[in-house]
Amino acid sequence: MSSITVAKVLNNNVIIAQHPQYAEVVVIGKGIGFNRKVRDLINLSSVEKMFILRNQEEQEQYKQLVPQVDEKLIEVMQEIVLHILQSSRQPLNEHIHIALTDHISFAIRRNEQNIAIHNPFLYETKEIYPEEYSLAEYAVGRINEAMGVRLPPDEIGFVALHIVSALSNRHISEVKEHSLLIGDLVNLVEDHLEYRIPRDSLDYSRLVTHLRFVLERLRRGETVRETSSLDGLMKREYPEMYMLAWKLTKVIEKRVRIPVYAAEVSYLTIHLQRLAQKKEDEADMQQPD
Predict the structure, then answer these.
(1) Do residues 97 and 81 make contact, with C-beta atoms less than 8 angstroms apart?
(2) Are 44 and 21 in contact (CB under 8 A)?
(3) Ranges for the PRD domain (predicted)?
(4) By the 8 A CB rule, do 154 and 119 touch?
(5) Which helix (H) or strand (E) holds 169?
(6) CA-to-CA distance for 49 and 28, rounded, in angstroms?
(7) Mind giving me the DSSP string for 244-271?
(8) Are 28 and 51 in contact (CB under 8 A)?
(9) How far apart are CA 170 and CA 112, in angstroms?
(10) How many angstroms separate the CA atoms of 65 and 285, rounded?
(11) Tell me: the pLDDT tens digits for 10-51?
């Protein structure tokens, strides 16, 4: 019978292992790392509820993510992904392990700091993707219960979009008409910031995921409600990143020939500001004492 060999234990629920078919893999499973040691053999047939990240880029991103996330959240996210798989009976793009876990972890931190992010796509998401929205309701409810938090209903819409993305498998590498545009947009951001975003980093994953969602909303003709208060805040607090976001939306409009709602500028500004802050933090770390 096939077995995997433990190469490194990241926590009780995540290990890096050597797989007979896929070489190095990240294996996610409840208790998979408990009391495991390097070179231990794990029989694949004896492991239940296991997810294997085979894609090298996905692996690197997940390895970066695990140390930043509460181990309890990793466990409940496995339960949620399994529920989505069993309920939808469709294959999921494995990127959901990274994108959704990262999103929820960030949402919990925002919630703890009393920072509310309004979801202007909530109503449209519920109308267009009722099944995915129902799965997202379960996910947010389970997270609130397991983590002892109270994520707002707005998060249901955000989670639903992650589920839609994973079920439709509209990954950047598989959507030719959007891949070039996204690459060009990332290059524009890098040129402006004079900072190359590592392609296997969470920062790159976050930016590309957001841009994919923008293009997906445009492709489906979804309307976006105006968020004048957030727009004013972003324009006032982060004028440089707001202008960059505005330029990016104009490039999108020109390439896809569809008007981009102004609210998209505000949400894109949030992502760009995170990147700008990351660049500043790295520059400070490189300064001599």
Answers:
(1) yes
(2) no
(3) 68-173, 174-282
(4) yes
(5) none
(6) 8
(7) HHHHHHHHHHHHH-SPPPTHHHHHHHHH
(8) yes
(9) 32
(10) 21
(11) 988 889 889 888 888 888 888 888 899 999 998 877 666 678
Read off the tokens for 76.
Answer: 């409940």
Assign residue 99 a region (left: φ > 0; alpha: ψ between -120 and 50; beta: otherwise). alpha
pTM reported for the whole predicted model: 0.65
Look up residue 248 and give its two tokens.
């990016």
Q: Read off the tokens for 102.
A: 């990262």
Share of the chain above pLDDT 70, in %: 90
Spatial contact of 248 and 285, defined as CB atoms under 8 Å apart: no
Total residues found in the chain within this entry? 289
Burial 111-134 (b: 16+ CB within 10 A, else e): beeeeebebbbbebbbebbeebbe
Task: Collapse the DSSP code of 14 into the 3-class scheme (helix H, G, I; strand E, B; otherwise coil) and give the result.
Answer: strand
CA atoms within 13 A on the CB side of 107: 25
Residue 42's pLDDT is 87
DSSP class of residue 238 equals: -
Residue where the block lists tokens 């490189």: 286
For residues 130 and 110, the answer to whether their CB atoms sit within 8 Å is no
Domains annotated for the chain, with CATH where assigned, are 1-56 (2.30.24.10), 69-105+121-170 (1.10.1790.10), 176-282 (1.10.1790.10)
**Residue 264 in tokens:** 């998209």
